[in-house]
Design brief:
CATH superfamily of the largest domain: NAD(P)-binding Rossmann-like Domain
Low-confidence stretches: none
Number of domains: 2
Order of helices and strands: EHEHEHEHEHEEHEHEHHHHHH
Structural class: alpha/beta
Largest sheet: 6 strands, parallel
CATH class of the largest domain: Alpha Beta
Strand content: 5-15%
Shape: globular
Length: 313
Amino acid sequence: MNTVDGSGDRTAVIGFVGLGNMGGPMCRRLLDAGYAVVAFDLSADALASATAAGALAAESAADVARRCDVFLTSLPRPDHVEQVMRGPGGALAELRAGSVWVDLTTNRTSLVHALADEAPAGVAVVDSPVTGAVDGARNGRLTLFIGGHDGDVARVRPILEHLGMVIHCGGLGTGNAVKLVTNQLWFINAAAIGEAFALGMANGVELGTLWEAIQHSVGDSFVVRHDAPSIFAGHYDPSFTLDLCNKDLGLIAELAERVGAPLPVTETARQRFLDATERYGASAAELHVVRQLEEDANLSMRLDGDWTPPWEA
């Protein structure tokens, strides 16, 4: 086993579990950077895609843990992390002394702490959820919010920087707190952008003109620039589902309990996503929260243009 010392030494073996919309591209970024990667996913197709790119296939998450120096998990939900790490044949107990587990999942902070407490002696744990969507994962332009001890963060930073910008947020769990704050703002903006478009269109402003004006104003945001084209194209970005939005909004609500005061804007945004889920189903694309308003206001927010889907950018 190699020691990960922060030098970026390519002799460290990377383990990667979770090769979906985000994990698959991140795994390929590490392969392209020259690391040996041992990978696993329940999806045979996802695993085959990773092995075609040069990864070594493992038989299970536990098998990955036994074979690597740095163990990365990128999973949709906290319960998936718990199952992979704690469940029958769980990976946590198989991690070797001197290794580091980096959880890239948007996770529950209390679960991250609990699993860290259960890790074998000599195993370091950091949380490092990511933001930047599928195109950011493909192109190495993610932002990673990492929480953990300074020394542990320094050990894995050179590896994670192949995925994007790394921001050390504080101790273990703070990475997820920051990620959920950024998602809080994302969901509020996603719910609001449809209302903004509807307000302008109902008062005689052409949609393309309105979008251009917003981009050059105090109303500009990532949602305006990155997500609005998915509304214009009419696919509403299926790379992230309403179910995942509601999962994150539930985690945000848990953090909000510590504030000691209501967060009415956040609570309203959460209800808008729940309403969209009731109408379209949990598997519908995230921006159906805007489609719901289009239907209710009898407006179409289709706009002609060369709108490259984010997962192809």
